[in-house]
Specification:
The structure is a homodimer. With about 425 residues, chain A is of the alpha+beta class. In chain A, about 35% of the residues lie in helices and about 20% in strands. In chain A, helix 1 (about 15-25) packs antiparallel against helix 3, helix 8 runs antiparallel to helix 9 and helix 10 packs across helix 12 (about 395-415).
């Protein structure tokens, strides 16, 4: 894509930083910079209310759809035909203040700065926050944007049961964010998501901007191993059917699979629950999750195959029953080459150092890529730390990313596909 | 010990079975034969109240000591100089109805049958239930009997904090079982505990009575691994400091150590907790327990040494901090040869099939062995299942065990040491 001449605005960095700080007060984790605003909790509602107030104060048209996605637009037709920014404001249980929130509040800042500049913009600008991007309380992650693009029905979303036994539909109703706007939603002209990298690459290489070419494929599997609970002192080792022994071996195997496949392949056992979970009882059952990711779909499938082979072998040896279910499965995504090239060209024109890279994390942008030309901008994460209250990005990087988002969005208002 | 001529009583098996069934209604786990009466809970209180009512109805002198141990005696001096039976009535979270309860209710039945027979018995008979034998809610296990024999101070017991944040002293007070009787308690003439085997040996070999020669040594260690929480998608495998990976390898190592040492050595990881325990977050820390047991103290120490070596090596490789603490440590115990021989001789005289064996589980009798001649009688556990609602012992085995307890206790009233 040729870079068209474009209208230009300067974002207000101070205002952006102040909003990030104010939103971070909600669900703040004492003694840290971090936040806990799990999807559809009271803290999530408070965060939503605050951002919606900011949107309304700018005179934007604000809509809430059937799964709680919120879109604010300068136009009358919502996201339809708009150049749209967006991300999420829910966090993991022990999250940082930038993950998701940056993309939403930077999008809002782009709109405020553009309105203040009183310039001629050929298309509406819009900003969204999508429901339950993290998937920490309810699978799958990126639930809201997945529903927005028609990848999951509203009915299916509302029926999802969380680990705590609550149901998405009930919780959405409870916090007042089961809205009337249609879902799937309107198709924007283009979508750009600004996000922290959540990995160590930009920080290690001292590069300001990551131009994201695509997103790793994600495979989440829950494995439940059912064995024979028994007394820890009286059951000879050879006669045990111990689900924890199986879970441990599968964890070791998952790590070996990732290391042996190499490259961007990662494997994580982030959750494991034993029952009855007592020091002197061989557990009756163990439930664990395995998170596999790769940029290459063929390799990701290979990792899944190797994992399930290992699971079956290990469980058979211990005479353990296996129940497995997929909690989430997304193929790797490639972003629109024209949007990616455009973001890179503008960044370089502005004198920013850039690096093309894949995203290791899932993002709402990968869902939006199904319905419109989409790109992403990364800014550095100190030491790559994320999903952790210690998550940090320097102010100047936050502001540089938001300014690039403004430049890219305004450039995209000039483009026709 | 020569078998003296002894007074003889016939226990009432129907009454014993009815009491076992009635006590099992308290904390009953729906749809199973099992019970959940964790120490110092409301269910534990209800169970205690019921057994105390039965003790009082027999006209026995009932005392409650400072850690909640309850002793009923036919004499005026409590357990002092008495031939004493006893065990516990607390259960693990998902326990059976016989573990502990059998020994207490059989002891009560021996006393009731003896009183009804109106025979001359040279010493008082006593029966006890000791507090918190299971240790499921508060470490260590066998807490009450350990305090009774002076192995743990009352102050230390009352200060113990449970996994749920509650304190033993508060909970004892709350359920009304922080009593006035002195602790450590009076020294009995002898102590005999009837218990289900909780292992598969008697059932497999179709033997009616296990003559217990001693108890395996027990070593409980809690290991906390502190790593670096991070995003599961963006952190390359080589840069991870993953406490779950360490916990899994340590679990595999613990099992190998037990298998390699062989014999009666067992190792169990019954409890593991991850934080934050989310599918897409490399955990910040993992806390697990390792339960090691052996009948030989030297081998048990070897197992402990090998475990801690493995822990250090694995944790160092992953750059993980280790915090370890001992939750319980008991050396193997040998019961009094005279009591053991006597139980075996009486059982054989009555035509019961017997087998000498160690106990794989810890029991209150191992504490009592510190202060008086002590023995134990095992009856078979179906398939060795215990610490499980499916725990089962046939009625005829329960009754045979209780009758042998009566015969042994009465024989011991005739003995002088």
């Amino acid at each position: 894509m040729e870079l068209p001449s474009q209208p230009s605005v300067v974002i207000n960095g101070t205002r952006l930083l102040a909003r990030i700080a104010e939103l971070a007060q909600i669900g703040a984790i004492e003694g840290t910079q971090g936040c806990s605003r799990l999807a559809f909790t009271d803290a999530d509602r408070e965060g939503r209310d605050l951002v919606v107030t900011w949107m309304t104060d700018l005179g934007l048209t604000v809509t809430v759809d059937a799964v709680g996605n919120v879109i604010a637009s300068t136009g009358n037709a919502g996201a339809a035909g708009a150049v749209m920014a967006g991300s999420h404001i829910d966090t993991v249980g022990t999250g940082g203040r930038f993950d998701g929130n940056l993309g939403v509040l930077a999008g809002l800042e782009v709109i405020e700065a553009t309105l203040a500049a009183d310039i001629d913009v050929k298309r509406p600008l819009a900003v969204a926050f999508f429901s339950n991007e993290e998937g920490s309380r309810y699978p799958p992650d990126m639930m809201g944007s997945l529903a927005y693009v028609g990848g999951m029905s509203v009915e299916s979303v509302l029926e999802v049961e969380g680990a705590d036994g609550t149901i998405v539909g009930d919780e959405l109703e409870r916090i007042g964010y089961r809205g009337p706007a249609p879902c799937p939603g309107a198709v924007p002209h283009a979508f750009v998501e600004l996000h922290i990298e959540q990995g160590p690459v930009l920080d290690n290489e001292e590069i300001q901007i990551g131009v994201v070419e695509g997103v790793q494929g994600i495979s989440w599997t829950e494995l439940k191993f059912v064995g024979q609970s028994n007394h820890a002192g009286t059951t000879p080792m050879a006669l045990r059917r111990d689900p924890m022994a199986v879970a441990a071996e599968v964890t070791v195997a998952a790590r070996s699979i990732a290391t042996d496949l190499g490259g961007p392949q990662v494997a994580t056992v982030g959750s494991l629950t034993l029952h009855p979970n007592l020091v002197n009882v061989v557990p009756a059952h163990a439930t664990m999750t395995v998170d596999l990711r790769n940029t290459d779909e063929t390799l990701l499938r290979e990792a899944e195959k190797q994992l399930m082979n290992s699971v079956q072998q290990i469980a058979d040896r211990e005479d353990i029953t296996v129940e497995s279910r997929s909690l989430a499965r997304f193929e790797p995504v490639e972003f629109d080459k024209r949007v990616v090239d455009s973001i890179e060209a503008i960044a370089q024109q502005k004198g920013l150092s850039t690096r093309r890279m894949p995203s290791g994390a899932g993002h709402d942008a990968q869902m939006m890529a199904r319905i419109c030309p989409t790109g992403m901008i990364f800014v550095p994460s100190l030491d790559g730390i994320s999903h952790n209250p210690a998550e940090h990005t320097d102010d100047e990087d936050l502001i540089a990313g938001a300014q690039l988002l403004a430049d890219a969005m305004l450039a995209l208002t000039e483009v026709t596909w």
